[in-house]
Amino acid sequence: MSSFNFLFLGSFFLLVSFLSVLNIIYSYYFNLYINVDSYISSLVVSLILTTILFIVKKNQSKLNIYNKIIVVLSGYLIIPIIIALPYYFSIYNLSLVDSYFEAVSGFTSTGFTIFNNLRQIDESLLLWRSTSQWVGGLYFLFSIIILIDIFDTNLRKSLTNFISFNSSEIFKQASKVFIIYLILTIIIFILLKFIDLRDFDAFNFALSIISSGGFKPTNQINYILDQDYKIIIFSLTLLISFFSIFLIYNLLFLKNRYLNFFTEDLYLLFYLVSIIFIFFIFFSNNNFPELLLSITTSVSNIGIYFDGYNSNLFFFYLILVIIGGSFFSTSSGIRLFKIITLIRFSINELLSHTKPKQVMVNKYFFNESSIDYNIINRYFLTIVIFVFSLIVISSLISISGLEFAVSIKLGILTIMNTVNSSLYGLQNFDFQNINHYTKFILIIFMIIGRVELLTVIILFKKYLFKN
């Protein structure tokens, strides 16, 4: 591995050690001594790994896409091991598998939890869960920068004009992302304090929301969001992880860029307004705040919703989950921009049969932009990979004895890193009592949902099909 790979992983080990110190200080300050030793274990292990990675002799080999994929995947497998230590050494007698499951769920910003009653968990461990999601969201954004080579030109333009990144450019963009990510977390915290959430709840929600995570600091948010204005403001904070993380930055520091620089975010805004309008007209029962929350929590892949909700609209909300948010956000999903591009291409192909083919074949209808068939093929492959992944995970989960309808829902939420809730008819799903086989399947696909199966296929192509 190159020096950059060691530095990348070492930096996140160091960040985990910092968060361990934060939890230790919090535990001593509020006299929460029952789990304080467990954070010492994560602190020691993370510092040892950081020291090893920073002082080990490194080669200066040139970065390539395969090494980048390996280092990103390694992080998703190794970092949750450190995050799992406080769960494993806590007083709650969690097994190693349950601890790792909770850690992966947090680090991938999925939100599945083996804890059925959060009121019985001390606040320091609730804080640890939320910080694991915050670190995971940051890791996901950094992984996009590292793997920028595999993304197409249109999506890459939302971040950079470079074709590829060297180590210095990766560090520059990562530093910018970290600062914006931190500032947006503070903004969410302030907005949540505005609706009178207590400091602990507001801080935990801020860490979870910015990362598109689903961990809650309390079992029921019904008692927190007890007024319409609170629900509306809370819903608007969820959109921060729906749009590009660079949206506010680009609006504030816009210089000589054309409006098409914000093409994806404009699509997302039109899409969001249209969805809200359609749902309000046909499905809302005139309860706009709850409608807004159900839509924003789905499109942002967060999934948090009120307990006890019962509706037959879960299919439509799952569709919103599958579509997801912006390319450069912490949300998951296939991405609206890809779907729109495929629709435009399909319309163009249909129209080409009614127009002179030599005129239509290389241009979009009523548009001067040329068709890049490599991009179209890649977008189409994304759809195929999602369908294939969903079939595989649903089939594997069904083998464990779950109903197929439940397996389909759970498969979608796992791949899209979205927490189960009453909005999708899975509020009472018990992750603690499922067998180890099912937990390992969910762990694998939670990670695949973050790195996308395309990166795994690229890796297999390199080492299994060398010819």
Secondary structure blueprint with pairings:
Layout: H1 3-29, H2 36-55, H3 65-88, H4 96-107, H5 123-146, H6 153-156, H7 167-194, H8 199-210, H9 228-238, H10 247-252, H11 263-282, H12 288-299, H13 314-323, H14 336-351, H15 357-360, H16 373-399, H17 404-415, H18 436-464
Helix pairs in contact: 1-2, 1-3, 1-5, 2-3, 3-4, 3-5, 3-18, 4-5, 4-18, 5-7, 5-8, 7-8, 9-12, 11-12, 12-13, 16-17, 16-18
In summary, what is this structure?
With 467 residues, the protein is an all-alpha fold. 64% of the residues lie in helices and 0% in strands.
Word description of this protein:
The chain is mainly alpha-helical and 467 residues long. It is built from 18 helices and no strands. Helix 5 (123-146) packs antiparallel against helix 7, helix 9 (228-238) runs parallel beside helix 12 (288-299) and helix 16 packs antiparallel against helix 18. The longest helix is centred in the C-terminal third of the chain and has 29 residues, at 436-464. The chain is globular. The two termini are 23 Å apart. The relative contact order is 0.10.
